[in-house]
Amino acid sequence: MIKRKFDFFVIGGGSGGVRAARVAASRGIKVGLAEGWDLGGTCVNRGCVPKKLYSYSSHFSDEFNLMSTFGWKSFKPKFSWNKLVVNKKKEIKRLNEIYKGLLKNSGVEIFNDFASFEDQYTVKVGKNLIQSKLFLIAVGTKPRKLPFSAQKKIITSDDAFDLKKLPKKILILGGGYIAVEFASIFNGLGVDVTMCIRGRKILKGFDDDVIEHLSIQMKERGIKFITSSFPNEINFENRKFNVHFKGKKNLKYDLVMEALGREPNINSLKLNLAKVKRSKNDSIIVDNYFKTSNKNIYAIGDVIDRVQLTPVAIAEAMHIVNNIFNKSKKSFKYSNIPTAVFSNPNFACIGLTEWEARKKFKKIDVFTSHFKPLKYSLSKLTDKVYIKLIVNSVDDKIIGLHYLGENAAEIIQGFAVAVVKGLKKSDLDDTIGIHPTSAEEIVTMKDKN
Fold first, then answer.
1. 438 is in which domain, residue-wise?
2. Could you confirm whether 435 is annotated as catalytic?
3. Is 345 in the same domain as 273?
4. 3 state DSSP class of 33
5. 25: burial class by Cβ within 10 Å (0-12, 13-18, 19+)?
6. Which tens digit of pLDDT belongs to each residue from 283-341?
7. Whole-model pTM above 0.70?
8. Which of 60, 259, 341, 383 could form a disulfide with 174 if both were Cys (CB 3.0 to 4.6 A apart)?
9. CA dihedral sign, ordered 418, 419, 422, 426
10. Which of 59, 213, 319, 435 is catalytic?
């Protein structure tokens, strides 16, 4: 075994780990990083980036249908799933190389293997035994799977990007953002999609009214829903998935996808040898400064199960490096983090839901707007924009903004500054809208619910 020593060693080459390693190395610290898979983590390789590319692809059928209403004569285009997959792989490979270059140019030594702890101060990476003054764990999560008979045939979001061919009929288990996004992707690409959720509503934790409007529009697009029910068993026979429900109800599908949440990717880390404590769901327990139960080991990102978003992991990385190497103690704030669901139509939000706001504040004002956007006005498409603005009645501050419609993420990203900086509804009223746009509705809403 080759013995190596570092000042700061990062386990995991995702967005958070790469950022922490780069920034630390730029300060003259001796930094190493271990990643057994491709650099970029879930987001680049099997999450945000390929998912957004596939989401774009799924919207072109709508664009084609709109063309004729704007005077364009065209022949029906032909979609190639294989072409999409090939081009996606090229883009991911390009991004992998960029991440590799950024690390090397910063002076980070990369180890292309998985790490596991030997004791509280040492990790094994391939043929290397590595000791470091400080360790950072940023290994992310992996899809959760259930023990159905057809488990090996059932796909997860990790597998969905590289299917050999599109199914004609798919069942998606789960109602979270991954399930909703893939339901919209497959539906837009012409697949017969059914979503199955244990409860009554998709996207638990988001604003109820917005989710109701999204559900209606997904149904209008042909997505089916099985609610308050879940399969007892799934087996695979004669090239079909047989899905069994209570009451002897059986349904057949070409493919089944599990999107039932994610779990910490810690199986090979041997955290017990490092004296690192975990919570009941196996996420790593950290304090307000991302320090684990081992004072020399820190953890950030999805593996600590706080807010599982790529930009949050990157912000945590910057925060922890500044704290450690500036010898400061600042806690990380998780309030007012904007987020998006790349469904069809898109949905994005920042701040509190109406239910959360009513629970937290004595009195609130709720403004809503619901309309067909100008882009669809000449067509038979039924998509509508729905906006909800939530204001604290006492000081007029904006405490929640929810937008359902095309380019929702792009719109909310800009307006997020208003919420983070404590702007008031009156500040929106003082802003002149850009006409005609859908986003101008946010600065012109007058009617309270």
1. 339-443
2. yes
3. no
4. strand
5. buried
6. 999 999 999 999 999 999 999 999 999 999 999 999 999 999 888 888 999 999 999 99
7. yes
8. 259
9. positive
10. 435
